Each structure stands twice: as C-alpha cells, then as structure tokens.
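Researcher: Structure for this, please.
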Amino acid sequence: MLDHLIISLDPKAEASLQSQIRQSVVEAILSRAILPGDKLPSSRALAEQLAVSRNTVVLAYQALIDTGYIEPRERSGYVVSAEAPVARLSVTPPDGTEVADESSIDWHEKLVSSCRDIRPVRKPLNWREYPYPFVYGQVDDELFSHTAWRDCARQALGMRNFGRMVGDFGLSDDPMLVNYICSRSLPRRGITARPEQILVTLGAQNALYLVAQLLVSPERRVVIEDPVYPDLRDILQQRTTHITGLPVDHGGLVLDEAVLARTDAVFITPSHQCPTTHTMPAERRRALLELAGKHDFLVIEDDYEFEMNFLESATPALKSQDREGRVIYVGSLSKSVFPGLRLGYLVAPEPLIDEARALRHLILRHPPGHAQRTLAYFMALGHYDAQIRRLRRHLAGRRMALQTALDRHQLFTQTASHFGGTSFWVQGPTWLDARRLAERAAEAGVLIEPGDAFFQQDDPRLNYFRLAYSSIPEARIEEGVARLAASVEDLRREN
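Model: Predicted structure, token format:
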C-alpha cells in the first residue's frame, strides 16, 4: 500500500465520494506522486481507510481502469498504468535559459483596443455563503426542477438526437428550439415571426453585441437610457463615442425629439426598464415608433424578464406594434431557467438575421447543440411553463415581503415594476454612498448592488442601489432589510 497516496473526502463537497476518490488518484498520478507500476491499496483496504462502502471504491477504480489511469494485475491488485497521461512536458529552450514566467512584450503597445475600463455590476462568486443575498440574476436552487432538467438533458443525449447534438450546426440552430420560440414564446409577447427571422444567441447580451457590431460604427449616433444596463453601454462604447443617454421617468425613456432626430439607433428596455423597472405606456411606445419612422432610426428592444409578470396583464412588446421592421427584438431564455444556460435569441428582418448569423459563425459558430436541444425538450414537455408558474408564485411572496420590510424601516424611496420582476430600484438619502453601504452591509451578511455602474461615468449618482429578491428566501428578507437599515444608520452617524 502506498503511504504517500493521500485521499481525503468531504461529504459536503459538490462531487460525489466516488468522484472525489477518482480525482485524488488522477491528481496523484499526474503530479508524479505515484508512478507507473506503483501498487494501489485494495478496494477493501481503501474502503476501510476512508470509511466508505467497498462498492464506492470498486466503482471509482473501475472508472480509472476505463480511462486508462490504472490497470488490474493478477495477484497484484491495482497498479498505475504505464499508459497513464503525464501532466507536463519538460521543455528546455535551445539556448539553455529558463522559460520566463511573464511576457517581456509591452502589451499596451500591441493592443489596438481595450475592455479593461468596463464598469459591470459585480457580485462575489461566493454570494451563496452570505445569509442575505439581495443579488440580481442568480438562481435559487429551491425554485428549479433539477430532476426535470436532468431528464431532458438525458433525452437530448439519446441516439435519436445524438447526431444533431454533436454535429456542427454551422449556419443554423436547433429547429425544435426555434419552432418553440416561434409558436410559444413570441406569441405571448404579441409577436409573429418565421424561423428565418430568429437567431439563437449565447444569451441576450450576445444578441446585443451582434447588433452593435452590425449596426453601430464610429460615425453613427446611438441613444441609450440613463440609467442603463451597464454591459450594453460598455458594448456600445467599443463601437462609437456618439452615445447619448436620455433620462428615465415613471414611463421609461423620456422622448427628446431634438436628440432622437439625430440618432441612428435607440437601445431600450420598454417593458421593464433596467434598472428602474418602469414600464413604458402605450402612448409613449406609439410616439417612439412614429419618431423612428419620421427620423429613420432603428429601435433595439431588450425584453428581458417578460416571463416574470405576476401582478398584472402583460403589456405587448414594442415589436408587436412595429409595422416597418424597425424594431429589433432581443429575448432571454436564461433569466427564467438559470443564468449559466446562456441562451437567448434575436428577432429581426431576414437580411439582418442573415448577417448576424454569419457574424456569430465567425465568433463562436453556434451555441452548444446539447444546451439548445435540452432546452427545447424542457419547453416541449411543459417543464418551462411549470418553472415560470413556480417562479411567479414564489417571487410574488418575496416581493411583498421586501416591500413590507422597506416600508417598515422608511429609509428608502424605492420603485418596483407594476408587473412584478425580480428587483427593486432603491434611492437612499442624498448623503449616502451606496458603495460604502455595500461594504458595510456585507460585513453584516447582506449583499446589495450599488447603482453607480448604471449611470454615466461623469454622473454616477452614488445614492442608488438595486435590491433583488430572486436569490434570497422569503423568510430571510425582513432580517436582511433590518441589517441593511442598521448599516445605513451606522454610516449616517459617521457622516
């Protein structure tokens, strides 16, 4: 038995005990802690050592045999295979000098562009470890049917679908998914479209990027909302400096004809403005489309979160009123399933879709086939609609709890969408710096999102922040707001 084969198991780890054993042996082999020909403990001995069932070790060893890391030897048990992979190839430069760890190249001189100045809304990777995470766009495991998704993924891997799933789509998308978008998703927004007018993307952000690449140049002028989705602003800043932010009121984007008359494209979130959550009324939508026709500009409609309507009848998408093909529609499928899915879609006239498809092909060819087909089954078998109903029910309760808690402490002025959604946009006292508040609140286990990134850099308005309720259980909301209020009071006394 190898004394230097150290395996420690963590029952709370995401990986199963069997997987942890496999990983430990593989790591030992790749790091040369154990060498080809070295004998491994018997399955019985290792099971006793680790206090696990013998079958767990047997299955782990069998998997290692199947993958070529170890091999059985008659009367010798298990040994490291002579064919086991090596982790690193030893390379010596021709001149005998050591390879430098860092490049000697001046990359500031070589780079022709930079994205380092982007201002995204950041959230800690370990946000789940905080007891009161008011963070946006994250999935609550309790609200998602893992069993249903796993079954759909297995079905997508079946032989009937295997050829489609593993193939290179090239310039196409999964027809099953596209047909569902045409027949089920878009009609709910009042939109009629043919498959040729739809492009599947790696989330809504990828769709926005493709549109910006195709329609925005350094000479063209664009209008965005202020405040605005930060990643959209940063995407556009890579294409042009002619960006005008128009203010947002209770009816969404304020229409300034003098500005709109000189623009080429307007990027907008009319049904659920990001981040204020305001909805643009029908009259202003009609006025926007009239101005678009009058002054010959395009409208890019980001219709994120439309599925989260649980308070009132949904307002039809702006695209549904478009009679000239001026509105380019962006939809997200990740918001209602889980953010890591990264699937969205673009709806536009065929000439633009053809160009976007070709551009997507150059960047990533197509979104993964297995993800597309799994989602298609998830939709076709009714799981997607069931997921939406489950989300709406729980989000309604959480929204009411958050509203009640905010009203009780009376520290903030907040706005929330009339149709529901997943967050509140909060305005604190004028003296408040939400960035400092976020730091102080985190010490008390509360996560919030400072709002400065949503505004123009020269006018950050530091007293705004976003409180999302999709990622926090309803039972914790009151205490989370109480702790947030205490953090505000601490900062007030320090000012």
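Researcher: Any notable elements?
Model: The domain at 127-142+386-494 is CATH 3.90.1150.10 (Aspartate Aminotransferase, domain 1). Residues 399 and 469 are 7 Å apart (CA to CA).
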